[in-house]
Amino acid sequence: MRWRLMEGLDDIGLTLQNEADITAFEATRDAWRPKTLPAKTDEKFVVEVARPVE
To answer: What are the residue boundaries of the structural domains of the chain, listed by start?
Structure first.
């Protein structure tokens, strides 16, 4: 929990760190199964982290 606070991550930010893996998984799912929507981007709202995520 402390690490998340130090990095400024909430549940969504933590999930978005794995966006490439989620997209790859969705690409291999059967067509009849539900898919997630792509992440929306908003140029007005920029999320910055305290330090780069490895």
So the answer is: 1-54
DSSP class per residue in the chain: -HHHHHHT--HHHHHHTTHHHHHHHHHHS-TTS--PPPPP--TT-----SS---
d(CA 12, CA 39) in angstroms, rounded, equals 11
For 5-52, the pLDDT digits (tens) are: 788 888 888 888 888 898 888 888 888 887 776 666 666 666 666 666
Contact of 8 with 50, CB cutoff 8 Å: yes
